[in-house]
Amino acid sequence: MEYSFLQLLGLLGAVGLFLYGMKVMSEGLQKTAGDRLRNILSAMTRNRLTGCITGFLITALIQSSSASIVLVVSFVNAGLMTLAQSMSVIFGANLGTTFTAWIISLLGFKVDISAFAIPLMAIAVPLLFARSGKKKSIGEFIIGFALLFLGLSMISAYVPDLQKNPEMFEFLTRYASMGFWSVLIFWFVGLVVTMIIQSSAATFAICLVMFAKGWINFDLACAIVLGSAIGTTITPLLASLSGNVAAKRTAMGHLLFNVLGSIWNLALFFPFIAMITKMCEAMGLGNPNELYQYVTTLQTTDPEVYNHLFDTNLPTHHPASQAQARVFAMQASVSICLSIYYTTYKFINLMIMIWFTKLYVKIVEWIIPTRKNTEDDFGLKFITGGLLSSSELNITQAEKEIAVYAERIGRMVNMAHQLVHTPEHTEEFNKLLSRIEKYEDISDSMELEIAQFLNHVAEGRLSNEGKIKIAGMLSIISELESIADCCYGVGKILVRKRDSHVDFTDDIYTNVDTLYSYVIDAMHLMIANLQEIERLSNSSLTESYNKEREINNMRNLLRRDNIDNINEHKYEYQAGIYYMDLVGDLERTGDYIINVIDTLKEQFIRPSKA
Fold it and tell me: What is the DSSP letter of 371?
């Protein structure tokens, strides 16, 4: 009986269902406890132990090390976590991925979990229609859990039978008795398969089915699992491609952890497998290779019994029923042995690597050096595509990016002040004016990209607080862009002044400098508040309001004095016009700054801190 193309599609569909279930369950959990996940990851980085524990727990809950590490990469990309802090979380996440293997081992063969999948969906689907967003997320989590094990059951049904379809694995069986070379070959198979399906858990499930049916021995099953540990790093690597340098380094640290782990495990492979075998025997699980030996011997000595060994619903009097019962009894034991290998390898790797965190950081920084660029280059620092989508994370990324945006606008304010004192008929003036114009163009692009990102986030499921924050951030970036326009406006005023051959007096420059000092102070206060947006309070904004009053009072004073100065012929009337244009421009800058402060007060301060 040949393995048909339809059956191959069935296997791919079963793997797809397994992965989709994992994705739905992961997203449901993140939506249910996204804010808590973010708070935990932000607070747990004080030491390596808590970092490892957190990484383990998050991965155990999400059921995917790839998802949790992409989450860590995203937090590093968003500036919530340093590269050094992320390493311990990655180490713990690699151990946490063994939790899925244990679920598959303990439940996958002992209990027909797929029998509970449909009843679980009957419970979960009504939750999808609940008004509460949290209940909807819980429903998604349950459905994902059901689909995951339904997919596992279907993988078992669609994996091709080596005896019935020898051509399917013929190219592998040739290399199954080559000693250590066989280990390397099957290690590479595990790596490639996992890279393709992007899930070490799915590879583990397929490997478990193949081993339990006696198609490969314990050594080669372990080699496949070992290779899958590297294959799973492809997901964070792909996700980090669109991230910043820190995100790329975090993903590279994950790859380095698993590559070095595979190197020492391969170097000690056979002694390590012998140790695992003794552990299994000491635990009463028996020698894991007994199943492989029993099935292969049965295939040779009694082909008729072997042909019916994996048939379902065999009658009790059938000659293969006793052999089938024995095989099923050994399946549960050998699956646990494979999980013991996977867990022991990951745990030892963690215990070794955790002491070299600082060395890891230095190595990945050497592998991925910081790209040399100037502050005039355009590029968002925290908002990038391709990383894990999570409303809490997206809002935090936008908050960080807006703080960077404000810092860039702050540099424009300083440049505009410098331009006032630059001789207008010099090359230096033209270069500085061109730089301000370039910054203004960059400001327009940053406003547009941040706004597009926020609109995309707003399309997802958000809490009322999240919706208020997004509305506030859209307002803030509009005000920041207006400040950039004011800075460029200073340049236009000075160009008109130059073309009119008008000169300012020393008193005018002194007054403009005084007003600029107030505006620059207000700008620094605004930037500081944007950088501490998660910890705002009314008291932190008070100084900004005081500075705004100083700007307005200074503006009013300068306007009154300007009329008297012109009447007293201290400077020309046209000089007074350009002088007041500058004063008005600076006063508008102060207004835009205080508009940002008003938005922070109304839409970002939590009631408990008010």
Answer: P
